[in-house]
Structure formats: C-alpha cells, structure tokens
C-alpha cells in the first residue's frame, strides 16, 4: 500500500498498460462471460482492523452462480473506519486498495460496472454520502456505487448476494442486522462495551476479568479463570490485572482472552460456563429483536429465513460451541431459522451485492 | 496555583515574612495549644478531579478534639493522581498546594510536625515511595511524612483520625476499604468500569444508558429512562446515545446521569428501580467482603464497627435513598455495623491521621 502512496498521484498509472491479463484471467476461471467480457465489479469489506477488496467479473444474477466464484484479484489494507483513523486516512486507504485490486486484476476503472463497499462506522446517511462523494471523484460517471454498513456485506457473504434474512456478527464486538423482502432494515446491539454488548468477544473477556477480580477481593466464587488468565497475560497476581486492563484501551486486546474462557468452561468451571451461557442468551436476543421487528419469521412465527453466522466468537470450538448454542436458542424462538456459515468472505459478499444491485437497477430501468 | 508556578522556584519566598499571623489564628480559634504553640500538621486529599489541602494545629490525640476543629487554612488544586496526569505534574500540584496552604496559614515548613497525604492512584509501596521521595525534598528531615490511598483519608474523616472500621466510597467510581485494630488492611472494588464496578455512579449510569438502547432496539422493556436521559443530554433519538457515549471517554460525564436514574426509580420505573437495587447489592457486597476478610464484626458476627459512607451516590435522595438501602443490606449481614456520615472533609481526616500517627510514633519512642 505504501508504494502507491509514495508514487503520489500516480497510483492509476497502471491503467495505461495493455489489458490482455484480464481476458486471460477471465478465460482461466472458466467464467461464463469470459468470451462476452462484460466488465468487472468490486466488493470491499472495511473493518476497524483491516480492509479487504476483491475484483470479480460481473455475474448476471438471473443465472446460476459459478462454483467456485471467479475472484480476479484480492487486496488487503488496514483500517478504513473513519471513526477510528479520520476521514482523510480512510479515503486514502480506500483509493489505494481500489487501485491495487484493479491493477492486480489487469483491469481498469473504465471496465468497472459497479462497486459495493461494506464499511464499519457507516451508520447514517451522512456517512454514506461522504464515502460516495469520495468514490465519485475516483470513478467515471457510469459506474454504479453502493455504500453500506459492513454487516450488510457479511449478510450477503452468507446469502450469496441476496438481501434477505439476518446476520449475527460476534468478534471483538457484536451486532445483529437484518433485511426483509420489502427492503425494511433493522439492527440490534453493535453499541460497544459501555452500552453492554455482553455477547461480544470483548464482553465475554471483560466479564471473565471481572470474575477474577471478584474472586480475589472476596466478592465472588473462586474460578479456574484466575490461573488461566494470569498465565495467558504473564501476570503473577490478580492485583496486576487492574493495571493490565487500563494500560491500553484496545478492545481487541481484551477480546483475545475468549479462548481462555472457553477452555475453562470446557473444563467445567462454573463461572466461565455462566459467562458463556449469558453471552449465548445475549446474542440470541439480538437476533430475536431483529427478526421480530422485520417479521422475518412470517405471521405464524414458523417461516423460514437464514441467520448468517460470522466472527471468531461463533466459530466452532472443541466442545463448548458458542455458535451452536446460539442457533439452538434462536430456533427455540423461531423453528424456521436456519444457520448459514458463509463459504466466501464478506468482500466477495459485497461484490455479489454489487451484481445484485446492478441487475435490479437495469430491470427497473427496462420496466420504466 | 499558577501564580506559584510562574514565580518559578520562589513558591517558598513567603517563609521569610514575619510569623505573627499564625499565632493570631491559633488564638482566634481558641485552640487548646494556642498558648503553648506546638506546630502544625497538613492533611491532603488528592483525587482525580481535585486536590484539597488543610493546615491544622497539631492536636494531641490523647485529649478530646475541639469542636469545631481549628482549620488554619485550606487550599484547592486540580488532579494529583499520577496515573491521570503523569508524575511531574502530580509532584508540581502537590508542592504548589502545600506552599499555598502554608502561606495562607501564616506558617512555614519548619513549623510543620507531620504531613499526611491520601492520594488516589497510590496502591502499591512503589507509589508510596515515589511520593515520599518528593516530600522529602520539600520538608526538613524532622517532619514526619505519611502517604496513603485516598480511601484511608476518607475513613479517617468519619472516625476523626482513628484507623478502625470500613469506608465505602461511591461517587463516579466506588471502593470499599477497611482496617482492623491490628493494622491489617483490605479493599474490594475500586477497579473501574471495565472490571465491573456496577455500584459506582458510572456503573449505575452506564446500565441506564444500556437500558435505553435495549428498549430502543427491542431487546429490553420500555422505560422512562429513555425520555428522561434524552432530555438531559439534549438528544432527539436513542440512536444518538451511541455517538454521545463514545464522543468523550470521561467517566464523570456518564456518572452525572445518576440523578435521572434516581428520578425514574422514584417515579416507579421498574427498569430504573432494578438498576438501583443491583447497585445497592453490589455496594453492600464490597463492604461485606472487606469486613469478612478483616473480621471487623468479631467472632460471633455481632461486633460493633463503623461504616463510613462517602460520595455523591450515597447522599440522601428524596425517597429512593441508595445509602440508606446499602446500610440496611449491610446490617442484614452484620447487625453491629453502624453508618457514619463524616462531619469533616477527607483532607481534615488526613490531618487528624497525621496527628494520630505522630502520637503513636512518639509513644513508641518513649517506650523503647
């Protein structure tokens, strides 16, 4: 990425080079439209830790999707959440990664038909409009541009670009997002540690640290978590946990202790077990709130809908499987809910969304 | 305070002026030792928000304390917690306020017999030693110096300088601290928001904000807290609470919402009521842990001991009185616990401690 920035203003120089590579790549991937080359789409997943961008050939949504999906190029960069790094850095990150992925794919901006960005921190129309204004300066006017919250890209990675159902993300933070057939959207959680995202990795680990302190000062039961966490942090006494906790405000650093909690729960530690059970209930409750708001379960409550499961907390563990317990809990409310574990990454979900949006728009234009 | 710093190095210049003022002040206060002038003591309460220092005549602890206590001078400064503002600023704050209070009292450093500092952030022998080394550079060798956590000064403000019993502080943060007749100490809570000080003002308010969000996104019951808090913060929707919460990391800003929670609980809002009940249990549990560790309640559990109650959260409210409920809860565990609401400020408690420590040392020296 630095190379692009250093070449200051020349990040688009590659566009003057010959274009054979793209044709070769499309042909190599046995893409349906390799012969009738119909342009590319870009999908981007922008998180607080990293940003991923992929370039794919435009896939008409009416046809069956090829398997595996033809990803022409992929690029990775750092944070693109403007709340974390400021607007100008976020814009640079986005422009750099877009140039990189287009260069890698042997394509260029005039070949792009649509771009879909799923970015964390995009919550309000103002956020969307700001990112759109950056993109308009990069792309020719004919390129369709879509800017969404990163939860939308995560949902699409499980539904292969279709916008229907619910996604539950539980990593360092957690959020539940859903969209109904009529386009109505809803979300729950995703409000950070102060406002009680107790099902998140941060929430689970913070409760474990709290349990260590409570056991130490006589307010709570003794727990295996004490030894396990002290060892993981290379500390010699629970007193030192206080200093460690406040030495660095990074949420991810605390969330990294989730495996210790799972380990203790698997070893039948009651305190750890209780923390995980509470997290499961919190996560299921977030999904329940979204499903009820949107009526995803139908009028009789038995309707079928996907719940896309994303993030480290929901990944299968040896025996204490948080994701599996969350699904069980959700299905008690809604028997028709079925879990989907995405086979593609969120950036590919965003690219599929770009195809979907583009198809919808051309259909609407044809009908009007 | 800035005047002292600007005169750079000259903050002790006042010591060259004549000393009649001190004698006059001592006489005016009808202090027992006004005729046989026996020097002064300094007491300091150093918090994260502000620091208070008082100068008092030395009061022999064997005699009955005069009522009201003769405070010769009082000075206020900003934060003196080295964790918050760094070591060199903390040292400057302490030296400035000590010079100011001595100058105001018409006294000087050679008249000082003992200094007792209760400072937040002083948790380990290392912290104590650092502050002591600063003080040793300020005072002549004969001055006795004592450095404690600010909870010790708060306890002494309720016990008039005696070190026995338990103190519960609940303001923005909360902590319980106790000391037994044999000098054994214990503490509970006082670990900040990440580690779950749910009985603190911050904890109460953060749970109220969480309840507003949960009601809004469908995860919790509707509550009066929504209207009350939105109005207090001048926000128009619960969505805006997220931005408000993370816009400023100050704990005190969030804790300032406690009166809204009390208001709603008094108006029978069940969500607010539940938050306050939980806070009461948490605070009582902190005291219980300390009392049990130290055996303050005696072997039969019915022994008499003071619980000094300090901080905005424990102050009497109209009808929902958190402090009163905490006392009720503590007395269910320990019938001999009796609440003490300090009549003097913690800085005066620290000054009384200085007298107490000094008396003990001279007694020990006389016996040896």
UniProtKB/TrEMBL annotation, chains A, B:
**Domain ATPase BadF/BadG/BcrA/BcrD type, which positions?**
42-354
Family annotation (InterPro entries): ATPase_BadF, ATPase_NBD, Euk-type_GlcNAc_Kinase
Q: GO molecular function terms here?
A: glucosamine kinase activity; N-acetylglucosamine kinase activity
The top of its lineage is: Eukaryota, Viridiplantae, Streptophyta, Embryophyta, Tracheophyta
For this protein, the Enzyme Commission number is 2.7.1.59
Which branch of life, at top level? Eukaryota
The name this protein goes by in its record: N-acetyl-D-glucosamine kinase
The secretion signal range is none
Question: Which family is it part of?
Answer: Belongs to the eukaryotic-type N-acetylglucosamine kinase family.
What CDD domains would the database entry show?
ASKHA_NBD_DdNAGK-like (cd24081)
